[in-house]
């Protein structure tokens, strides 16, 4: 949701980072429903209108922060095998999404302008893994998303309990087994 | 979310039905964000406090209506084969969930007290199908939810476009192929 012309380190990027950081701080101190634009502005040292101009309202800003958080810090772990990499990625994904901040992120991102960014980020991660093994038969990224990421998230949002790790492992077998 | 002691046709059930019906009417006339408890009460011919007492707030009521709508009107179609039944069910599910009312329902239900009711309803439908074929090897309900329902919903909520019907058919093959 960052404007494409934004130079990293430019003034606009610094303002954005201070606003994001104010949001992250406030979310640690108080309930998300009670966070307001004037509060965020005061914490970030900007005027409320800077925030309204850029995001429109507080829910778009929360969603933007959630999306930025979702950007993984690192490449997926490289374990030396396709199976091992997918398994390490899937276990971390299950772990992160079923945590309290992960669940909140899933809700915020759905309120965002581009929730499809989710599948783009996940797809990028999985493609990175697949590219490591050019010489072996591989599933498509789509197949991995449908058979691993989708049940992980669906069970968190709509079922009594998240996937068990053994269920996750079985799904990985199915996804990698063509 | 109906209290288990509620007698169908009892006074309480009639009040609930008139409130649900008022919500459904209002949602056809105006944006969901603008629907208020006093409005619903006026339309249903009850006092606002009846609604507050029972649901607490408007979002819990909207979620309850969404859940009630999700209760399928009919048994899953009986095509004479396990494969055909699962396919008919999955196509209808994809169709309904990716419609505008379906998407709204997915959001409302997540705001509900018991979004896990979703998996319970879906599970019941799929179990009905499986029970029709006692003498053949069958996948578990869990497997069908993970491999068919989960990717359907995940792609609606978090990807650029819903599943294509051919993708859905491939997922059904995977789910039924053990």
UniProtKB/TrEMBL annotation, chains A, B:
Pfam families, alphabetically?
TetR_N
Quote the DNA-binding region ranges, renumbered to this chain: 36-55
Give TM regions: none
Does the keyword Cytoplasm feature in the UniProt annotation? no
Instruction: Recite the UniProt keywords alphabetically.
Output: DNA-binding
Q: Indicate the segments forming the HTH tetR-type domain, all copies.
A: 13-73
This chain's protein is named TetR/AcrR family transcriptional regulator
Organism of derivation: Pseudomonas monachiensis
